[in-house]
Amino acid sequence: MKTTRAYAQSDRADSTVATRDRILAAATELFLEKAFEDVTLAAIAKASGVSHQTVLNHFESKAGVVVGVTEVLAEETFAARAARPGDVEGAISALVGNYEQIGDANVRWAMAADRFPELSAQLGVARAGHRTWLATIFADSIPANPKRREQLLDALHAATDVYIWKLLRRDLGRNRAETEKTMAGLVAGILTGHSP
């Protein structure tokens, strides 16, 4: 049977988790909307309805918040990119759908990474996750030979990178369907040119 003290400790733990989640939700929204350098701990605190010190208590620094935000986005990205292995059109549709949500922020972060080491490290994790997704989705088409495998994954990574999405959607003004068709064509061409 729980004592009053045990209930109080449980309530504090629940409150701590809820506060952390609220901070991460506010920080994620800010990072998706603004340039990396424009998101401050003070802005995160204000958006989440807590004090600056509370943000520091949970994350220690902006770098700590960035790690938390990238973990949240990684989970959301994994769910958003669910596709049947080997289904090029389905995979690209899921990928572009994810880019429609976070692509602009991805590009901003990538462009700022040289100036912010904490951001650079997280982008490395994201790139590795993207490569793992490619290896899983297109596993049946990937050669066993390690050198050829890496070449194919490099080509697939280039064809599906957020910069390709940005080029098509933002720079060239293509709509989502056109973007998906072009990216799927690039991937299909790469897969056709490499036999396992």
UniProtKB/TrEMBL annotation:
Keyword line: DNA-binding, Transcription, Transcription regulation
DNA-binding residues: 40-59
Superkingdom to which the source organism belongs: Bacteria
Pfam families per the UniProt record, alphabetical: TetR_N
InterPro entries: Homeodomain-like_sf, HTH-type_TetR-like_transc_reg, HTH_TetR
PANTHER family listed in its UniProt record: HTH-TYPE TRANSCRIPTIONAL REGULATOR BETI, HTH-TYPE TRANSCRIPTIONAL REGULATOR RUTR
Protein name: TetR/AcrR family transcriptional regulator
Phylogenetic placement of the source organism: Bacteria, Bacillati, Actinomycetota, Actinomycetes, Mycobacteriales
